[in-house]
Design goal:
The chain has 2 domains: about 10-80 and about 95-100; about 130-205 and about 215-434, Major capsid protein gp5 fold. About 35% of the residues lie in helices and about 25% in strands. The chain is built from 11 helices and 18 strands. It has helices spanning about 20-40, 45-75, 115-120, 130-140, 150-155, 165-180, 180-185, 245-250, 255-275, 305-320, 330-335, and strands spanning about 80, 90-95, 160, 160-165, 190-195, 195-205, 225-230, 235-240, 295, 300-305, 325-330, 355-360, 365-370, 370-380, 385-390, 395-400, 405-420, 425-434. The strands form 4 sheets. Strands 3, 4, 5, 8, 15, 16 and 17 form a 7-stranded mixed β-sheet that branches. Helix 1 packs antiparallel against helix 2. The protein is globular, with a radius of gyration of 26 Å.
């Protein structure tokens, strides 16, 4: 959206502090959401005009934030110009420039959503250090003592459906989710989504170079592409906590609530990334994606050995990819660790064995033939698995539902999707017994 930033209609937004800008952006976002909810599928002229005004104000605040961020970056980088009067002026830097995530579409496991949000104008440097736990505690108890920053972020985030968690706080929880998800630990990439759908291009054909004689025609070998479409799907999770936790705990203590939210979401994210059915609204996981390699182990399954993992890695290599980890059920990891030779000595893991990452989201009760206790092993080049995550989520405070137990509950709604960028980079072994 293009606006005239010099227009006097934005005068009331000029001169706001960074904290006040965050508060105003959250208020406007809540106002826009309410306009859409009231209007339904079709907006009349008044609703369109009101919504356009909200959009323009948000765009102005985004412009001011980006401008301030650029100035901060120049200052932080120590860049300056010589003060001489010669025609040639040298720009020097006293310190190396910090790598920015601005404009990045895909994040590796080492890159945080929190930093990405700040570098792309979805948060300000002044929002750093804000606590999700203090934000939730303030909502429940209305006690914002020692949480003035969180109170400013909370203003304007209440809508008819619940509290819209401000982007800086949501990003912090999303990073906690990523830290606990086994597929992210294995190397799956994260794609921050700022809209309902997002298309990511992928290479499907490279062609091959060819030797040629002098003056001979060169045959065209075009690269071919298609696109993977991420569609944000809703994931709801309920967290129930004792009211005493909020009333008696030190408000400065951080991590209890955010880690609880993150742990529950990470468990489900692992499950759908590995085994999601693909039947809406559930994303499609590795197991049910066409183009992967599936290896069976007899009519009734077979006991896991290191050969299963080595052969799977070899299959991925043969497909032209570089496997980097296996994801297994904890039972499989224990069984491999307990393997012994005929003399009762523990077997050493083979040289070149890839890291093995356990998760309870790999089942151990699949039925194969007459066996009802089989599991799976997932092997691949894990950066070919991508998880799209909306950069915000909503929390609904269920104040009365568990009041008779003196408990409080939150219904957290997060939106995400899972896509394989290259299905051939993955092998799933089925019929794996302990």
């Amino acid at each position: 959206m293009k606006i005239n930033v010099k227009d006097h209609k934005f005068d009331h937004l000029r001169g706001l502090s960074a904290t006040d800008r965050v508060s105003e952006k959250n208020r406007l976002a809540g106002q826009g959401r309410e306009i859409l909810e009231r209007a339904g599928e079709v907006m009349d002229e008044d609703a369109e005009r009101a919504f356009s005004e909200v959009e323009e104000q948000l765009e102005f605040l985004r412009h001011v934030t980006e401008q301030e961020s650029r100035i901060r970056s120049l200052y932080a980088g120590g860049s300056y110009e010589d003060g001489d009067t010669t025609n040639e002026r040298t720009v020097r830097s006293s310190t190396p420039k910090k790598q920015t995530l601005s404009g990045l579409q895909i994040l590796t496991r080492e890159q945080s959503v929190e930093t990405w949000g700040r570098d792309n104008g979805y948060a300000t440097a002044d929002s750093e250090g804000a606590s999700f736990d203090k934000f939730i505690r303030g909502i429940v108890t209305r006690d914002w003592q020692g949480a003035e920053q969180e109170r400013a972020l909370a203003e304007g985030t209440l809508s008819a459906g619940g509290y819209l968690v401000p982007t800086p706080l949501a990003s912090n929880v999303i990073d906690l989710v990523r830290n606990q998800a086994a597929v992210i630990q294995a190397g799956a990439q994260t794609i921050p989504m700022t809209s309902q759908t997002l298309k990511v291009p992928r290479l499907t054909g490279e062609g091959t170079p060819a030797w040629r004689n002098e003056n001979a025609a060169i045959s065209a070998q075009d690269l071919t592409f298609d696109a993977v479409t991420f569609t944000a799907r809703s994931l709801a999770r309920m967290v129930i906590m004792s009211r005493e936790l909020f009333e008696d705990s030190d408000p400065a203590a951080s991590g209890i609530i955010s880690k609880s939210f993150a742990a529950q979401i990470a468990v489900e994210l692992d499950r759908v990334a590995l085994r999601g059915s693909g039947t809406p609204p559930e994303p499609r996981g590795i197991l049910n994606t066409s183009g992967i390699t599936t290896t069976t182990h007899g009519a009734n399954g077979a006991a896991v050995t290191y050969d299963f993992l080595l052969d799977a890695a070899g299959t991925v290599l043969a497909a032209g990819y570089m496997p980097n980890a296996h994801v297994v059920a904890p039972r499989s990891l224990v069984s491999l660790s307990k393997a012994k030779d005929t003399a009762g000595n523990y077997l050493a893991a083979p040289a070149g064995l890839l890291p093995i990452i356990p998760t309870r989201q790999v089942p151990v009760n699949n039925t194969v033939g007459t066996s009802t206790d089989t599991s799976e092993v997932y092997t691949g080049q894990w950066n070919m698995l991508a998880i799209g995550i909306r950069t915000g989520f909503e929390i609904r405070f269920l104040q009365e539902r568990y009041a008779d137990n003196n408990q409080v509950a939150f219904l957290a709604t997060m939106r995400a999707d899972v896509q394989l960028l290259q299905p051939a980079a993955f092998v799933v072994d089925t019929g794996v017994r302990g």
